[in-house]
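A.,

Following up on our hallway conversation. Structure tokens first:
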């Protein structure tokens, strides 16, 4: 990783854009730049003008950009080309700039598919996912493509929830009500550090008690109120920290063209969460 002595005009800049950025991605990418002796630098930003930020990526020659909530859908009209991974679900989490041409990807989808498989979540489990935004779209697509067939999307916006559910063959509702699914997933910012609902549970305790697997896409903190409760109840848990490490690895490859070894990725993930 470049230092104050080595940063030059040739140093390649990659960034992230989020309403409430954490240091996870910054530490992950910069660790690997240092490990692989790459003249790259990674910096997180909280933009007040998302259109201006995307224009800046193009104008300044910024190589890559990670996109987090709530901008995963907002950036779509601002880029030049959607990769199939983003086009299929109309949600973006990665932008790659090649000589001013901005191409958007979604590595969240791949990461969620991988964690569902690695945790061996039974595909015949019924599920409920809270949220209908960009991250929810990636999770719902991954669930469907992983073989899940029975689930509900819980969304305050009845129209977006219904549209998402209909697209993937699931059901939708605005409240979880009497549903007690075996797999519950939070795909909203509830529980995120620095947010207005940082200390809140995304699901009522009785819903968590009835579940077998609890999945929270919020990565910071890794132990959200939902994950903490689920751990205390002895549930199988999947944290957003696992997802962010996997999707960041795919972003790293897109930005640099280099795939780190499994050991390097493991150490980068541990460092990012330290």
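Then the amino acids I'd put at each of the 274 positions:
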């Amino acid at each position: 990783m470049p230092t104050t002595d080595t940063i030059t005009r040739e140093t390649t800049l990659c960034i992230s854009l989020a309403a409430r950025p954490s240091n996870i991605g910054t530490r992950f990418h910069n660790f690997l730049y240092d490990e692989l002796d790459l003249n790259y630098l990674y910096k997180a930003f909280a933009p007040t003008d998302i259109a201006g930020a995307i224009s800046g990526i193009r104008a300044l020659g910024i190589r890559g950009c990670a996109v987090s909530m709530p901008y995963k859908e907002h950036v779509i009209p601002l880029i030049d080309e959607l990769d199939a991974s983003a086009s299929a679900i109309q949600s973006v989490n990665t932008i790659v700039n090649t000589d001013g041409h901005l191409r958007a990807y979604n590595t969240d989808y791949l990461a969620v598919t991988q964690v569902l498989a690695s945790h061996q979540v039974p595909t015949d489990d019924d599920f409920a996912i809270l949220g209908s935004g960009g991250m929810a779209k990636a999770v719902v697509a991954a669930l469907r493509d992983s073989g899940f067939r029975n689930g509900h999307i819980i969304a305050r916006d009845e129209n977006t929830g219904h549209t998402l559910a209909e697209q993937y063959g699931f059901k939708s509702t605005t409240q979880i009500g009497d549903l007690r699914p075996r797999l519950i997933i939070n795909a909203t910012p509830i529980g995120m550090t620095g947010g207005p609902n940082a200390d809140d549970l995304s699901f009522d305790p009785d819903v968590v008690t009835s579940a077998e697997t609890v999945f929270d896409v919020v990565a910071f903190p890794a132990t959200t109120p939902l994950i903490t409760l689920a751990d205390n109840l002895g549930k199988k848990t999947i944290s957003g920290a696992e997802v962010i490490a996997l999707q960041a690895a795919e972003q790293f490859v897109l930005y640099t063209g280099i795939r780190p070894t499994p050991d390097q990725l493991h150490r980068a993930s541990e460092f990012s969460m330290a």
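Residues 240-256 form the longest helix (17 residues). Curious whether your intuition agrees with the design.

B.
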